[in-house]
Specification:
This protein is mainly alpha-helical. The protein folds into two domains: 1-35, no CATH class; 36-71. It contains three helices and two strands, in the order αββαα. A hairpin with a 2-residue loop joins strand 1 and strand 2. The longest helix is centred in the C-terminal third of the chain and has 19 residues, at 51-69. It is extended.
Amino acid sequence: MVFTNDKDLTNKLRMIADHGQATKYYDSIIGVNSRLDTFQAAILDVKIKYLDEYAAARRKAAKFYDSAFREIEDLQMPVY
């Protein structure tokens, strides 16, 4: 959900959420179909409880790879 008083932004966000169309079957920008069915929502409801744990595991893995590859001169690591 997005809150804004900018009409242009509101219209653009609505178009993106509806396959990029303001008028049916006329896609003026690239959009998405981001609707979830009940099953997907139920799975995400369970998975979101573990989001912090998952993010911490990813950070730990990233630190491991950063240190493991640090001494390879020809390898350029991404900056984040």
